[in-house]
Structure formats: structure tokens, C-alpha cells
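Chapter review: from sequence to fold.
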Amino acid sequence: MHGSLVLLFSQDQEGATRLRRMLESQHGLKVEHVGYKNGKPGAKAQARPQLRAVFVDLRPGALDDSGLQAVRELGLERRRDVWVVALVNGGYPRELAVWADAVVREWLEWPTDQRRIQRIVQRFSGPPPSCSANVEARTLRGKTVSFTTREPELFPMLEDLELVARHDVTVLLIGETGTGKTHLAKLIHELSPRAEEKFLPVACGTLPADLIESELFGHVKGAFTGADRTKTGRLESVGRGTFLLDEIDVLGLDQQAKLLRVLETGEFEPVGSNETRKLRGRAIVASNLDLETLVANDRFRSDLYYRLNEVKFHLPPLRRRQQDIVPLAIEFIEFFSNHHRVAVRRVHPEFLERLKAYHWPGNIRELMNQMRRAVMFCRSGELTPDDMAPAVTQSITAAPVGPPTQPASDLSTQVALTEQAMIEQMLKQHNFNRAATARALGISRVTLYNKLKKYDMF
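The C-alpha cell string follows.
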């Protein structure tokens, strides 16, 4: 390691000189200082086979707009054999947070954390750890929604989605609550020949069990008590568009049989009518449960499952998409920063590390809500772990939620807090399956839905 080449990218001449002298005199490294404006620094980083480490100055005041662009052009993502150390005094510039997550192996508070340099330099003798993210990203883009991932395991899925979207086939989406099934269904719609038609999501879990058929297929006047007028069902009202049946697992076996007939023949009758209607829309169905397991337990019709299983996509939980956590978080931060008019200029490295350490039981939906909270609590313009909810900062594996230990100010507040905690605990126990949670709590799915809405738990 003695005599190894180190590049130091910084626009701070005085600070760079101080660090260069320390690295050379105390650690025997050969340091070359390169200003961001000195030609094309990216070529300098890529064309040095003997290069061992790169220090990149990301401190406030050390970067102007040209410096930000120069950092992106360093080409460090193509040097997996090089240690990349970020010099910070607080957080990364928000514009470089995703880049830093992709290539930075160590970060150093400079000049206040000089003792840490010794530990970092000692690690240069070994190979750098794997990048925390894959810089290459793949995007599938529709008119209003898109899907971007840096997970190589998901690249084939994007290619298949683009192909399947063009063909008029039923698609089955499987994934935990909050993984983005509705988002993906809308993307399929926007990439299909039906893109200019209506997209209609139907959350089956929110429909009263005795009215599901009426909601889906419609009914005629007098079909049942309270049917004082004819109603068009969701499957007919979508026209030539695309409808998404989410939480399809909550349908009863008889309702599943009728849905199977619709998918196979394109025909159905409104409740109380003998008149056969034709389905003109395209079906996408989704579930947060393994339907094959439900079939084995006689809770889901095997013939419907095999009909749906023709084209199936599985959305992995966010905890298995480690390389996508930070890019998604930064996207939400930028959105809520603009939406709430809160200036978020920098993101501390520890903030990003906590994001990747947490297991995100609520997946992308939980990440979005947590980033909204963090932005609202950001007072300094820099996101730090202090801006996060305790559930994220205090645990890598979420602890069970119990009743509040501190007494509330009044009985109604105490009851509400206890109810909210119990619902959250039961959701986690049942893998965020709302139908199973409602059964365990002894309430209807509609009641559970209303309580989730009341406590902002979506």
C-alpha cells in the first residue's frame, strides 16, 4: 500500500493541501490533487490502473454547479477496484445522494474527524467492499407513471412487462402490501394499446362481502333489498380500458367461479338479470398472498388460479431491493420538499445508512410516508437520523407494537391510541393482509378500511 496513488478531487485549495500533506507524510501515499475544473477529471480517474483510492470533496462551499456535474462525470462507478472516500461536513448534496450511495465506500467528516483517517487508510490494503448500489438503472416509462430499478434481478421483469403489455392477456401481480402492484398495473395499462382508455383499480378488500357481485357486475332495479335503481358494474363501466382487481383472494369461491367465467368467455350477467353482457375491458388481478398456498388450503379455486397463472409477475418486498431504497427515498424527498415547500439541500450519510438498515415491513408505501415525515421535520435544510420516526432509527427489525405506555390526556385519545396500535400489530402478524386482519380483529373489511383511513395507516 505504501506509495499507492490517491486522487483528491476538491475545489478547496487550502483544505486539499492540508489533507494531501497528511496522507503523504503520515501514511506514505502518493497524492495528486485535481480541481473539478481542471479539464476532464473523469478521464483522470478512469485511466490510472495503479489508482488505489479517490477522495471526493462534497462539503458545503466546496462544490458549485460545475463541480456537481464534474463529480457525476468522474467515472468512479466503473472503477470497482478503487476505494472512494467522501469528504463531508454534514450531509451529501441532495443532488448527489444517489450517486454517493452508489460509489462511496467510506465517508469522513473533514476536518473534524482526522483520527478516522488512520482507520480508513489501513483498509486500503484490502479490496474495497462491494458498492451499496448498482449505478446502472433500467426504466420502463409510461405516460404518467414509470418503474425504475437498479436491481439486476428485476431487469428481465421489465423486459417481460413491456412485451406482455402489448398483448391483450390477463396479468397476475403478486406482492406484499405496499410493493407497488397498483402502480405497476397502471404502467402495464399505459404501455398497452388501451392506454388512452380508462384505468380503473378496484380494491376488493374494501367492498362489503354481500355486495361484491353487485359492485363488479352491476345489478338491476329490484334485484335485492335496497336496489332501488339499476347500477352499472365496474367491469362494464371501464369500457375498453383496463381494470385492476386488487386483493382478489378475498373473493368467495362462488364469486371466483363467476370471475373465471368472465375471464374465459368474456360474458357476465348483472345481479338479478338474465341479459348477458360482454366484457370489453382488460383484466389485471393482484394479491398480497401466495394463491398457490390458498389453493392447497381450499380457499382459492384451482381452475381460476391456473387461468390467472398464465402471465404472473412477482414484486419483491423493498427489503429485497436494497439497491433501490436510496433512489426511491430521494425521489420522495424531492417530491415532498417541493410539495411542502421545505428546503432540503443535503442528506447525511447516516440518514441513508439507516434507510438501508431498516426492513420496511410496509414496503414502498411506508418508505414514502416516512420520507414525507422526515421532510416535514427537517428544520436545518439537512436530513439527519433525528428527522426520522423512532421505528426507523431505533430498530433494524421492527419491534412488536403494543399499547401506549404513557397515559393519554383523555379517555377517547387513550382508546384511539390503543386501537391504532392493535391494528398495526395485527397487520404485521398477518403479513399486512387486510382481509385476514379484519377476521382476526372480528370486524368487517369495510370497518377495517375506514379505521386505516382514520389513522392514516395506508
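Two observations follow directly from the output. The longest strand covers residues 51-57. Confidence is low (pLDDT under 50) at residues 396-409.
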